[in-house]
Amino acid sequence: MPNIQNILAIASGKGGVGKSTVSVNLALSLKEQGLKVGLLDADIYGPSIPLMLGTVGQIPSTPDNKTFNPIVTLGIELMSIGYIVLKDEATIWRGPMMSKAIEQLLFQTNWSDLDYLIIDLPPGTGDAQLTLSQKAGLTAAVLVSTPQQISLIDVKKSLEAFRKLSIPLIGLVENMSYFICDECGSKHHILGKNNIEKFSIDNNISLLGQIPMEPRLSEGSDNGQPIIINSKDELLAKVYQEIALKIDSKVRKIEKPKKKLEDIAVKTEN
Predict the structure, then answer these.
(1) Is a pLDDT exceeding 70 seen at residue 78?
(2) Best exposed site among 8, 94, 134, 158 by fewest CB in 10 Å?
(3) Any idea where the domains of the chain sit in the sequence?
(4) Residue 18 CB-density burial (10 A; 0-12 exposed, 13-18 middle, 19+ buried)
(5) 116 forms bridges with which residues in the sheet?
(6) What is the spatial order of strands in the sheet that 76-80 belongs to?
(7) Which of 233, 239, 190 is CA-nearest to residue 215?
(8) What confidence tier does 38 reach under pLDDT thresholds 50, 70, 90?
(9) Highest mean pLDDT among 134-143, 165-174, 182-191, 218-227
């Protein structure tokens, strides 16, 4: 995809860690730096980007009945299976069908010239990661986790999967890191403290930033108003902007291309 400079995957070892919220706010933070950004919702079974960006019900136009024009909002280009299937329709597809759908969303969208295409991956490891590694040529990946040990067990699997696929890992984002008490202003690490710092050191991966637990984050996602565009939440916006700056700096240092999927032994079920 010569018109896209960098394709960045946002991944998590398990669901429920806020990966899609991080994807949306990082995409907007990169856009705020003057970069041209697209966001692909590759979570075929649970697309959430349309809701988080207030674009539920919008339908991509098709200029030639073969390709789609991306939805554009808040200065970024979007594509999601959520724009194509009915809102309450269950997507019950086997692996090959899911992989084909991801390919179509990626390659049959008329993306503009972009500095970044952010891909919000499904949780875990599997067909989506393999498909994108083979077809898209991912520039790098960012992992998202909460502080609990149970989350880090799954993050370890994702980390090893990306390394086996020779996809550079930019770093790890700790989501729901701490809670700031409204009355006393102190930090409370209610999901665990120092777990991710130790994990990042032990696994030689950068800790990009720590995002606090904040009710306005989920409220903004539910209302289609990402926290990054709300001037009242300067702390959260600053955290995301600092993470985005680190990501952009690290991406610029990456050498391309990477190893192809055909060179890697992949286990498949019969």
Answers:
(1) yes
(2) 94
(3) 4-255
(4) buried
(5) 6, 37
(6) 71-73, 76-80, 37-41, 114-120, 4-12, 140-145, 169-174, 207-210
(7) 233
(8) very high
(9) 165-174
Cα–Cα separations (whole angstroms), residue 81 to 43, 177, 249: 8, 30, 31
Instruction: State the DSSP string of 22-50.
Output: HHHHHHHHHHHTT--EEEEE--TTS--HH
pTM over 0.85: yes
Largest CA distance in the chain: 59
The distance from CA 232 to its chain's CA centroid, rounded to whole angstroms, is 24
Residue 99: CB atoms within 10 Å: 20
Architecture of the domain spanning 4-255: 3-Layer(aba) Sandwich (3.40)
DSSP 78: E
Q: Are 114 and 77 in contact (CB under 8 A)?
A: yes
If you average pLDDT over residues 128-141, what whole number do you get? 81
CA atoms within 13 A on the CB side of 39: 31
Q: Residue 92 has what pLDDT?
A: 58
- Residue-level pLDDT at 219: 73
The pLDDT of residue 90 is: 54
Residue 40 forms beta bridges with which residues? 79, 119
Report DSSP letters for 54-76, one per residue: T-TT-----SSSS-BPPEEETTE
- In this structure, are residues 21 and 213 in contact, taking their beta carbons and an 8 Å threshold? no
Q: Enumerate the β-bridge partners of residue 58.
A: none
Distance separating alpha carbons of residues 105 and 99, to the nearest angstrom:
10
How sure is the predictor about 1, in pLDDT bands with cuts at 50, 70 and 90? confident
- How far is Cα 267 from Cα 164, in angstroms, rounded to an integer? 12
Enter the tokens of residue 4. Answer: 């896209």
